[in-house]
Amino acid sequence: RDRNNELLLQSVRREDSGRYSCAVDGHTHISPAVQLNVMYSPRSVSVLINGSGVIVEGDSVTLNCISDSNPPALNFSWF
What we know:
- By secondary structure, the protein is mainly β.
- 0% of the residues lie in helices and 33% in strands.
- The protein has strands at residues 18-20, 34-36, 40-50, 62-70.
- The chain has a two-stranded antiparallel ribbon with strand order 1-2.
- It starts with 17 loop residues before the first strand and ends in a 9-residue tail after the last strand.
């Protein structure tokens, strides 16, 4: 907080996403909330194998590529 009653978020992180409201000290009225949506590139990319046990030739197996990003990743490449 400063003289201008501002909330300064420096080095914004993905965890800062959310709804923010303000109020005057000593009063019960709260402002309408605003939504902060922090965008970030994919990280924690991993592959999950959908299946259990030993996979042998001739079996079917599903591999899922997942990541943490905002907006969510829509296109993946396999290699």
